[in-house]
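Long-time lurker, first post.

We've been arguing in lab meeting about whether flavin mononucleotide would sit comfortably in this protein at all. Half the group thinks yes, half thinks no, and nobody has a model to point at. So I'm putting the question to the forum: if I give you the sequence and the SMILES, can you give me back a predicted structure of the complex? Inputs are below. Any interpretation is welcome too.
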Amino acid sequence: METYNIPEITRNVFAVGSKDWNRRIFDSLIPLPEGTSYNAYLVKGEKKTALIDTVNPGFEEELETKINVVSDLEKLDYLIMNHAEPDHANAIRFVLEKAPEALFVTTEKGVKMAKLYHELPEARIKVVAEGDSLDLGGKTLHFIEAPWLHWPETMFTYIPDDKVLFSCDFFGAHTAQGVYDEDIEELVSLAKRYYGEIMMPFAKMGARALEKIKDFGIEIIAPSHGPIYKNPKRILDPYEKWTQGKTENKALIVYVSMWGSTREMVRTIAETLLKEGVDVRMYDLAASDIGDVARELVDSRAVVFGTPTVLGGMHPLALYGTYLVKALNPPAKYGVVLGSFGWGGGALKQAGELLGPSKMEIMGTLQVQGRASKEDLKKVEEIGRELARKMKT
Ligand SMILES: Cc1cc2nc3c(=O)[nH]c(=O)nc-3n(C[C@H](O)[C@H](O)[C@H](O)COP(=O)(O)O)c2cc1C
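Top reply:
Settle the argument with this. Predicted structure of the protein with flavin mononucleotide, as tokens:
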């Protein structure tokens, strides 16, 4: 039998999921510099045993082996699904085949969503709703609907007896490293990146979920990606701030430049902002990890977009980056668009169309022909000073 580490996170609750050390991209979009983990948890009550979530395709046998070390998969009573996305739910069928008596437990929305992706034996579905519980003997599973964190069907499972919250993607972080939060110094930064990529568009739903769980006195948070929090405050406090959309006096600059003209403009605004006491983060979209951009969006008060004109519109990478910024629905209050063109222009117009309907106030734009002149750069400085002034108020 293969040797696996199977942490007992609290009495008779085992982490039986998998680490995917080498995965480098998620959702065909999100870079994973440190891999990720697909966490699943086995809960052994005095009478019944439940598995909370499963694993990504390819890790089914590891899951089976781990469960059989601490229990007996064949005798599993319940398979709880917090979220239908395949990285957590793909092994549903595998588990239900290996555990012939197990009931599949999720919400009505969960059943609907799971049926779109996984084969479910109709007779073995047990639907639960907000506030319902399942008694395992000495341990009760309590279900909390947490829609949109991260799909419409998401729920949390809570064991009041042990004060453990299984929060699925909420509070997650993409990293294969560590078992507990104390193992990773930069964990909050990784969690912030994950929050920006996955949860920020649903910040209001996140705030509602935090409200629901605030009086639970949670002692352990066991998410579906990344380490388990033995110090829940370490993630609850930042989540409180992030879901409220509280920003810092910080400007995020995202830009593309083929021949340096736009770069000179964004460098000028960066220096002006720094002089005015604004914290600045700058990313060249041709060479940046979009996860870092997502992380900085979580609490940036302003976003500066820089793009040259290419074929009558924005540079394709700037178009992609700007689209993503908008789709992630960051709390930033102010925007600036800068860029250079060679003859007819067009990038600024397209950026305006794209950002127009967003809640960000575009408080300054400048498009220059060729290299920015001294006068142009003075205008950029003026925009920077005005932006800094607005950001302080
Ligand atoms: C592939 C390519 C396509 C371009 N298309 C346009 C265009 O449609 N309209 C325009 O005004 N300038 C166009 N330009 C000129 C650039 O916008 C111009 O060189 C600008 O100063 C580049 O700024 P940068 O140094 O920040 O990349 C194009 C340049 C390149 C390389």
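For your lab meeting: The longest helix spans residues 374-392. The mean pLDDT is 97. Whichever side wins, do check it experimentally.
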